[in-house]
Amino acid sequence: MFWFALAVNSTAITVLSYVIYFRRHGRRDLLLAYVALNTGIFAVVSMLTNQEVGLAVGFGLFGVLSILRLRSDLISQGEIGYYFTAIALGLVNAVAAPMPWVLLGLNVLLLAGLYTADHPRLLSRHERRVLTLDVVHEDPVALRQDLEARLRARVKKVEVTSVDYVRDLMVVDVRFQVPRPVPSPSRERSGGLPSPTWSAGR
Q: What is the C-alpha to C-alpha distance for residues 153 and 126, in angstroms, rounded to an integer?
């Protein structure tokens, strides 16, 4: 069953790292990190399971890696989600090797859940930004109106991170919703095709 689990794990991490992650986010360095992390977890936990060391060591390794994770300011919270899924796939495929149907079901569950949660069309109009304003607003209503005018969107939540009265600056964490794009009347009349142009001849 080890070779079956290895094949399933290799297929799952390929789908996770390349088919889902790389084609959506395009970072080759993290693709390599996810593959190496998943393969290492699978190899170590498979060895510990075969040697009857106990699953506690495998779950302890999962806990240590979860605490360490990928320490970089250039990694978003969404990419950390891929990181944990890569660890979970390696652990599940190594531990559940004697139960092929459970192994396949958990792989499908993890991949389908991540594919759906990170789909570009899911909550695509909801965004978050950290802005530095060149003015200090004491009134929360005035702050919200200023942000909506700058972002041209509906502000859902605002958190003031810092205020500098000397330089008259404030840093805010904004969650907002972008309005739906409105099609132009000319495109609606032409069925989405550009209207033809006519040149005057003699």
A: 10
Report pLDDT digits (tens) over 118-136: 877 766 667 778 888 888 8
Quick: pLDDT tens for 72-100: 556 677 788 888 899 889 988 988 888 88
The alpha carbon dihedral of 96, 99, 100, 101 has a sign of: negative
Structural domain spans, the chain: 2-117, 126-177
CA 114/CA 110 separation, integer angstroms: 6
Helix/strand/coil percent split, the chain, to 5: 55, 15, 30
As a whole number of Å, the end-to-end CA separation of the chain is 82
Q: Which tokens hold the place of 159?
A: 């958190």
Given a contact cutoff of 8 angstroms between Cβ atoms, the answer to whether 82 and 30 are in contact is yes
> Is the pTM higher than 0.70?
no
Instruction: Supply 119's token pair.
Output: 């789909």
Q: Give which of 84, 86, 56, 85 is closest to 68, Cα–Cα.
A: 84
